[in-house]
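Dear all,

This email documents one entry for the complex benchmark we are building for the journal club exercise. For each entry we list the sequence lines for every component of the assembly. Then comes the predicted three-dimensional structure of the complex as a token string, followed by one or two observations. Please use this as the template for your own entries, and keep the labels exactly as they appear.
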Amino acid sequence: MANPQELSDFLAQVERRAFKQAAYAVRDDHAALDIVQDAMMKLAENYSARPVEEFPMLFQRILQNAIRDFFRRQKVRNLWTTLFSSFSSVDEDDDHDVLETLQPHGDEGRNDPSDEVARGQTLKLIEAALQKLPQRQREAFVLRYWEDMDVAETAAVMGCSEGSVKTHCSRAVHTLAALLGKKGVGL
Amino acid sequence: MTQERETAKKIVALLEEGAADLDQATLAQLAAARGQAVAAMSGRTRVANAELAHAGHEYSMTSFLHGRHLWLTGLAALVILLLLGSFVQQNFSRQPVAADALLLASDLPPEAYVDKGFDAWLENSSQP
């Protein structure tokens, strides 16, 4: 059984990545914070009796479920919004490309590691590309490569087969490389 | 596969930089959320310990009451047995005494009651 200090250490270690993961998925920092807070509370309330070694898998599972719950609620909300706003004109462009709003830096910037602005720009491009990925591909990519889980662990968290994980990861990396390549960012 | 992994690693390295560069407000909110989760866990641990202690107390009380209950049941059974015995003794011991007194006080001699023809005579004599 983990003690409060071990939980605190674990959460301090994963909270930033968890927040970023949620933010990439829901594209809203406030909602992402709520999701991470919800996941932390659920881990503390429901799984505090588990050994600390199980926390990474449990937390990722809770986090992914919290993100899915957010989308489910969003879907219901959108349905009502669509029903009520069907009589008014819609000016919003749903096909808005996040990548279009970002300016790629030149080759000289990319080759200069001291150029913080250029690096920040590259990061924004990557984050925008990550947000454009299909949900399952993004999940697989983040869990497999960012959380450094193996294929079996990723499959367990995502609730799918190991083959599906490999497929999602491969497609995610190729899509990201292609999206970034279009913007002049080579990896 | 190796190329794919290399590309992924480069992307992840940049993502790590982004995660390390979060603004102070977000970091403060994350720290607050973490604090709440830890407090919830500490609270649950305290409650669990209290429940455990309470359960132990309840168990000892139950054991005590259970032991007492056995004693009380045994005592009640003993009292009932004594009362029953007393009732049986009183009733069954009084019956022969009453019969003896009736026989001795009767006008007829005791032999008359054991005579086989007495019942027939009594029946005939009682008919109009």
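Observations: Helices of chain A lie at 4-26, 29-46, 55-85, 107-110, 116-132, 135-146, 151-158, 162-182. Residues 109 and 116 of chain A are 9 Å apart (CA to CA).
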